[in-house]
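Hello again,

I reread your note about wanting to compare the complex against the isolated chains. To keep things tidy I'm splitting this into two emails, and this first one only covers the full assembly. Below are the input lines as submitted, including protein chains and any nucleic acid or small-molecule components. They are followed by the predicted structure of everything together. The single-chain runs will come separately.
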Amino acid sequence: MLMIRLLRAPLPLLVPAMLAVALLVVPLVGLLQRAPWSSLVSRLVDDAVLEATRVSLVVSFSAAGLCLLLGLPLAWVLARVDLPFPRLVRAAVLLPMVLPPVVAGAALLFALGRRGLVGQWLDSWFGVTLPFTTAGTILAATFVALPFFVTTVESALVAQGRDLEEAAAVNAAGPMTAFATVTVPSIRGAIGAGLALSWARAFGEFGATITFAGSLGGRTRTLPLQTFLALESDPESAVAISVLLLAVSLGVLVALRGRWLTR
Amino acid sequence: MSPLRSPTAGPARIEVRGLVRRDDFTLPLDVAIGDERTAVIGPNGVGKTTLLRLIAGLERLESGQLTIDGRVVDDAGSVFTAAHQRSVAVAFQDHRLFGHLRVVDNVAYPLRRAGLNRNTARARAAGYLAAVGLSEVAMVRPAQLSGGQRQRASIARALATPAQVLLLDEPLASVDDQSREALRDLLISTEHRTVVWVTHDPNDAKYANSTLTLS
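Full-complex prediction:
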């Protein structure tokens, strides 16, 4: 049946479409075929891997939390306030999505490094240094993940419009009450999707992290960094971690199915 | 206390004099509403809904002044009392029920904002739902209601709001003929507040103390 349906499609569309599927699937098959299935679990409970897992979980969940804390108000402002230069503001918010992560890491270093624009004051006033710390790793992950959260939530707010907030207002709800009792609950699906996307982006973050926070075991070395390190010394372990990361990514995708990604 | 009696200070005189900007033109308004029940009639696009939105505080005057009960709530400049601080309730033409709340909690919403606890607010909301004939769907979500039921729930929510002014935007437009009479009686029996009722139906207008024609 499937073959018949496929063969009805025009060949100039069918062939590139099949090539695209191959391009996406073959690397994953390659990974799975190299996976050391029999020793998979023992390689994942290795001390270095467990430590990287801990760092990754702390960093990714903290980053997702920061995305919620900062991104929800930002999405609301973008959707509801008439800003000057709205396109410019929106472009600035979206930039980390398209910026090469290494550039993001370098930018963070110049801004928040010990001699950076803001970092020098953080250091001399508060004694706070961010590079090569877990906090810096969280910051780098938040930087790259925040736009995913903000765009998801903002488009839900724009789609919803102001109608319900107006209804809340004439029912004696002040702006913050309306936000908490009407706006947030009615876009909770989009908030969940935004959290999942930003968490996944933070979980997989590599370039900005290694540039800004380095790869210090137990502090800044996340699972992707551990994978990269292991590729040199212990490729089998690298494959095992990759399989784990792949499983997590698939999990997020499945959890989102029917919510946001299928729209 | 009867569930349909609202704890307010009685009807309020509303005066709107000034200009309001619509999408493509400015609309002059010179309106005084003093009676308990005023029907607002006029052709489509003449600004009936805009008038209600101005009184509710969802729209601002371009110039002029709007007073409710002698108090200036919008002077097109420094004075603007926000919607949630005006003693005004609205039944929107497009219902605007909160999809994440059960029908009873939609009606309880203004009562909760007035400081009632959840159970008291729900109990009182149930009274308003009974009055509009929606008792049996109190625990469902608005998405499961028909258009007419949604409009009735929206009316119940507006009636539940303890406000001096009740603004109704074609409240019976999508209600079926059988319930229309009963709902009209219910709206007419609303006492101690100013009701501004936008309508196309001459039968509605008949029951008003006065009629305001916009043209």
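For quick reference: The first strand of chain B starts at residue 14 and ends at 21.

B.
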